[in-house]
Every structure is written in C-alpha cells, then in structure tokens.
Amino acid sequence: MLKPIQNRSWLFILPALILVGGSTIIPLVTIANFSVNDVFYGNDFIWVGPKWFIQVLNSKEFYNTLLRSFAFSAIVLTIEIPLGIVIALSLPRKGKRVPFYIIAIAIPLMIPWVVVGLMWLLIIHPQWGSLGSLLSLFGFQINLNNLLTAWSVIVFVDVWHWTSLVVLLCYSGLVAIPDMYYQAARIDSANRWKIFRYVELPKIKRVLMIAVLLRFIDSFMVYAEPFIITRGGPGKSTVFLSQSLMRTAAQQFDLGHSAAISLIYFSIIVLFAWILYKVM
After folding, report:
1. Angstrom distance (rounded) from CA 263 to CA 191
2. E strands, the chain, where?
3. Could you tell me which residues are beta bridge partners of residue 39?
4. How far apart (Å, rounded) are the C-alpha atoms in residues 126 and 156?
5. CA 58 to chain centre
6. CB 54: neighbour CB atoms within 10 A?
7. Predicted local distance difference test score (pLDDT) of residue 43
8. Can you give the pLDDT at residue 81?
9. How far apart (Å, rounded) are the C-alpha atoms in residues 211 and 169?
C-alpha cells in the first residue's frame, strides 16, 4: 500500500482543488480587504480599520433584517427537515417506479429561484392565477399586504422549492443501509418507530447534517422569492439580510459596509456549521 506522499493519484484532482480553492479564497480575501478600507474611484484604498463593522453593528436595520433571516430559516427548517424525512421514509427502496419518483421529486430543484418566484406570483394572482381565481370564487383572496399572509406565502414557496433536496439526501442515506440491520430489528420484534429511532436515524445522521447545513445557508440568504413576490412588503416586514446587502452593495455602492455585512454572514455560517458538527 502506497503512503499518501507516494500516491500520485491526488494529482488528478489537484486542478479541481486549485479551482475550487481559488474561487473561494480569492473572493474572501477581496471582501476582507474592502471591509477594512474605504474605496475611492475604484482604485484608491484608505485604511479605516473596524469602521464598517462598527457601523453595521450599530445599525438597527441590520439587526431587524438579521432577525427576520433567522426567523425565516428557523420556520422553513422546522417544516422541511421533518417533512423531507417522512417523504423519504415513505418512498420504496426498490422497484421499477423508483426512478420515476426520484425524477418527480427533483423537478422543483431544477427550477431557478427567479422563475419560482414569478411562477407562484402568477399562480396566486386573484385574476390571472389558477389558485388565486379559485379562491376568489369562494370569497377568499391572498392579500400580500397582510403580514401573516406575506410570510406564509414566502414560507410555502420555499418549502415547495427545497423540501425535495432534503428528501433526496435522506433517501440516499436510507438506501445505503444494509438489509441485515432491518433483519436484526425484525428478529427483535422492533416496531416502525424503533426501527427509525435506532436503525435509520443513526445511519442517516451525517446526511441529515448536510441537509440542515445546506438548507440553513440557502434559507438564511433568501432573496429572489421575497423580492419578486412581496417586494419586501408590507412595509419592510419581508426585507431580509440578503436584500439589505444587495441594496447596500449594488444600489448605494457602499462596498465597505456591504463587505462587513458579508463577513458577518460568513462568520455566522461557519459558527452554525461548527455547532452542527459538534451536535450531530
């Protein structure tokens, strides 16, 4: 057996590692540079130290958008993770229909964020949308100017779009469990709950951790759906951290401020991943 230093096979993946590492490290270093400098005319950098971080941490809008982002992530994760596990458990592990089920479940994941937002905005429209028109016949109307309705629609759209990811990840973990574990459980007369609790859940724990991490990263920076469906309304009740960051960077061109927000977001993601790793 070759030692790692003698094994040359890693050279085949070296270009991919360089590409992935470069595409991660270079933007991160660039953002870190902008977060401690003031930029003039795109070329002149003046060192300002923690000025931008102090402004961000003293901003009431930052805490409001951060709280909304945490709340949104908590709500969708609470729904998507259990729902994804239940659907994955209900799918057959073998049979000719399995590929059909997998493709059908994966369809929402193939649709871009912007298209999903526009699609559901049209569906719930009281005049043009199929669902909106149907509800109008019974005297109901989806009023996006209502706080609870606006949040409910955004949460529903996210659940519809991304529960499939949890299903597919959990299902991949379930089909990898050897049959001998189920045979041993049947010999011990274990019921369905005990099989899930002591056989399936421990085996899919790592896959579940990946699902939770991916969904938190994405839901914490939700942008397209609330931007298209509610435009941040009513008021600023559906303005999340990503929208505030986009406005600061692209519209106000405040690169230092937006870079500081980006690094804080990155720190939150790293902290969440570390906590999740320790817990799971």
Report:
1. 48
2. 37-40, 44-47
3. 45
4. 18
5. 27
6. 12
7. 66
8. 96
9. 7
Q: What is the DSSP letter of 138?
A: T
**Which of 73, 118, 24 has the alpha carbon at shortest distance from 218?**
73
Distance (Å, whole) CA 280 – CA 265:
22
Residue 204, judged by CB atoms within 10 A of its CB (0-12, 13-18, 19+), counts as buried
Q: Which residues contact 28 (CB under 8 A, 6 or more apart)?
A: 266
Phi, psi (5° rounding) for residue 234? -70, 140
Distance CA 202, CA 91 (A): 19
**Around 169, how many Cα atoms within 13 Å sit in the side-chain half-sphere?**
24
In order of their start, the domains of the chain are: 60-279 (1.10.3720.10)
CA distance 173 to 158: 23
Angle at 135 between CA 130 and CA 137, to 5 degrees: 100
Selection from 101, 233, 76 nearest residue 168 by Cα: 101
Q: Which two tokens stand for residue 241?
A: 């951290």
Write 195-204 long-range contacts (CB < 8 A, 24+): 196/89, 200/89, 200/174, 203/173, 203/174, 203/176, 203/177, 204/170, 204/173, 204/174, 204/177
Give the per-residue pLDDT at 3: 56
CA separation for the pair 84, 172 (Å, rounded): 12
pLDDT of residue 138: 84
Q: How far apart are CA 140 and CA 143, in angstroms?
A: 9
pLDDT in tens, 178-226: 989 888 888 888 888 999 999 999 999 999 999 999 999 999 999 999 9
Bridge partners for 47 per DSSP: 37
pTM over 0.70: yes
Highest mean pLDDT among 67-81, 112-126, 258-272 belongs to 67-81
Please name every residue paired with 40 in a beta bridge, in sequence order, or none if there are none: 44
Angle at 171 between CA 166 and CA 172, to 5 degrees: 105
